[in-house]
Amino acid sequence: MTWRGIITYLAAAAAVVYSSPTNQCFNCNGVPAQEDCDVITHCGDNESCYVRKSTQYNGQALFESGCFSSQSCQVLNTISGIGKREAGLTNCYECCKTGNNTYPCNSQLCGTPPSRERKCFSCSDITKPENCETIVPCSEDSICYTGSYRHPFSHEIRYNMGCQHKDTCSVFQALGHSHVTSSNNGDYTQVSHCNDCCNDDYCNIRLCGIPKKVKPVFTYKPNNSTLNPGLEGVIMVCKVEPSSNATLHWEFHGASGGTGLPSHVQVVKAPNNVNLTIFPAYRADMGEYICVATNSVGTSKTSAFLRPKAR
């Protein structure tokens, strides 16, 4: 029997043991990484959270998650070689049980060890690096990089940001990082030509004379979500670059005109980030959620919309 046949059989058997919902599990279908899933749902007392990782014929990995019968999960754990019967399809099928009022346990299933890749800002030919909003992971043999040059026609200072091989960065260091001209602004220097590297996450936002003090720069933004009101919820994540020294909070503009965060929304703050858990999400919770980050230089905002699924 193929894994599809096994899952169909077990899902049918699970229907007779469903009970009232207690567990919270991430519930997504076809996301490229399990950490990209932000929709949560209630599962029954006799259900567990699960994640299935599959590899498509083009080599792309996709993750599916949700609720599954705990009894069926035990059966799956005893089936040796599941996923190997159809080469290139299911690579992993794992279950876990979430206790009440805890973070969904299937956030880490079918995963890989924590990546040691550096996360760096990546933008090309820009005049204001603090406006760069693209972040990319660098390979283990690369680190963060920023280069600047003076445009031959406009004479503006332009910046390229991203990843650079460590050997190339060593050459930059041996040759000297930059050619610097003085500036009247005490916060930064004007760099007419520069190639520089650094070895911390998001650190290239501070290279090549980029102002040391800038408005908060987001490194993780919340995603738009479409949910079944009263049945599903969402976790919204908002993070800023660590050296921003920003304070963060959430604002809400309801689709029906309401303002102020709904009373049942949970806000969890940590250094440089603030998470919002809305579970379950009701129709009154639909609208725009705005993450606001403020430091001594100014305020930055990013937002996501919560919408109901069509009936």
In short:
By secondary structure, the protein is mainly beta.
Describe the structure.
The chain is mainly β and 311 residues long. It has 3 domains: 3-107, CD59; 119-206, CD59 (Ribbon), CATH 2.10.60; 218-308, Sandwich (Immunoglobulin-like). It is 10% helix and 43% strand. The chain is built from 3 helices and 21 strands. Strands 1, 3, 14, 16, 18 and 19 form a 6-stranded antiparallel β-sheet that branches. Strands 8-11-10-13-12 form a 5-stranded antiparallel β-sheet. A 4-stranded antiparallel β-sheet has the order 2-5-4-6. It starts with a helix and ends with a strand. Residues 216-307 form the Ig-like domain. This is Hemicentin-1-like. It comes from Crassostrea virginica. Keywords: Signal. It holds the Pfam family I-set.
